User: Fold Exc-4 from Pristionchus pacificus.
Amino acid sequence: MADAYQLQNGGGDKKPLLELYVKASGIDSRRIGACLFCQEFWMELYALYEIGVARVEVKTVNVNSEAFKKNFLGAQPPIMIEEDKQYTDNRDIEGRIFHLAKEYNVPLFEKDPAVEKRIESLYRNFKLFVRAKTDFDKGKKDLQVPSDIESLPAAIKIHYNRIVEQLASIDQLLSDRQTRYLLGPSMTEYDCELMPRLHHIRIIGQRLLGFDIPHSLTHLWNYVLTAYRTAAFIESCPADQDILHHYKEQLNLFTNQRETLQSPTKTHTLPETVLDEIKRIGLDRK
Amino acid sequence: MADAYQLQNGGGDKKPLLELYVKASGIDSRRIGACLFCQEFWMELYALYEIGVARVEVKTVNVNSEAFKKNFLGAQPPIMIEEDKQYTDNRDIEGRIFHLAKEYNVPLFEKDPAVEKRIESLYRNFKLFVRAKTDFDKGKKDLQVPSDIESLPAAIKIHYNRIVEQLASIDQLLSDRQTRYLLGPSMTEYDCELMPRLHHIRIIGQRLLGFDIPHSLTHLWNYVLTAYRTAAFIESCPADQDILHHYKEQLNLFTNQRETLQSPTKTHTLPETVLDEIKRIGLDRK
Assistant:
């Protein structure tokens, strides 16, 4: 039913063992799918694993398999299991991780309303943009090439503008704070939320929308680079093809063999000019 | 995409309008499906609506429809919408309801660790029992008649015993407290969690497992009766057939026309002897 994706046992046998069931890719059920909540919790669990608080096992599950349905009776990933306890609700999963973090003084759940406000509606607005733009592009001749942003009607451009504004406001916050992660030198739940979403925006922007995070947002790009250098993010990140496949499936777009037969790849590099600018102003050495 | 299930507009136009998208039944997408989180939030929203804090609209959605997938890009019900904000995460939905309740001093989220401990693993254990018993019954000649609890092998009976013990401990708590709801005279989030789960246990027990909540647990049955007299529960409750269909689907059991063609019915009555006992000791007059 579940393919063991990763085994991470850190010696000590008194540590709690947390099993996380994440949604498999629609291309290959042994690969990680593009479920954002799954990646978010995986990153949090990774943080606990890294400092030796817990043992963590992650398994990909095919939600359409009879075995999965029977075992979980209608629950959807992410699902966390600890001994005989099954956590099928995001509130409960987070509650358990929160208590473990608290018990071991891991500053994973520090609160910051300013950060919360900046990031909360970004992905929601991105989804509106994806829907509007792909709908618009369906009328086009060459479906493989997304239409130019500049040529969009005002009703769709409004979504684009909102995304860019929000990305700029996160860039500004990062520039003001001059920190590696959103709250400081170490990763918190806000990063576990934002990093996967930014990566989806980047991959889907590039492959489906003809959109990129503006190259002028150097601090934001540097934050993306931080994600690409954070083990918790890298380990839990689906391949580009699996991310694209997920959106195409939901949008009822034609899936071509380029994605389903390709060897999975992960874009974890930055555009060259952006990387040069980051190096020039020395952000990468912070 | 969504069928408007219910419109509940309480006059005042400054009240926030909260739209809740709940999973439709697999039998008929205009009917409510057996999604426990959906019912839980629906009950909480109903509580806010009842006292005039918010306007609430509930819509059933067919999660397999292209329109749904496109609108929500992979998110699953329950989904709550307020103005242009989409809440697709149980943590966010609860967070919003929590803040509204707090703003208007609605005691919906009072904490009670003793109650939390008693109810937390009940449904999880029930799922283990459902799976083990239906697996066992698959080997039987007459698949329509569930095997007798007494005849079960020890490995399955252990699940049964655990459920009965937990139900008895909730009965004891209700007997000690002598309250209408778990915490007092008014409904809290704990009731929104427990009532739908108890009802599923009852319906699935009766129709699939040959199991009933022990009739000796008078205080627990009286609590079930309270659910059947609580508007928030009644309104949000799926029909028996839709509950049964959900479990059969997950368990990969044969669905017969009895369920799919029957007019939907809701069992909101108690066994006669239990009701007599409740009346005899005067619980129903509290």
About this structure: Chain A has two domains: 2-103, 113-285.
